Amino acid sequence: MVVSPPTSVLLQAIFLIRQPPQSLAARDLVFVQAIWRHGDRAPQSLPYPNDPYDETAWQRGWGQLTNIGMEQMNELGIYFRTRYDFFISSHYVPSEVYIRSSDSDRALSSAQAFLAGFYPASGSFQWQSGNHWQPIAVHATSPGEPDLVSSDNKFGDQPKSTSSRL
Question: Where is the stretch described as Disordered (predicted)?
Answer without folding.
Answer: 141-166
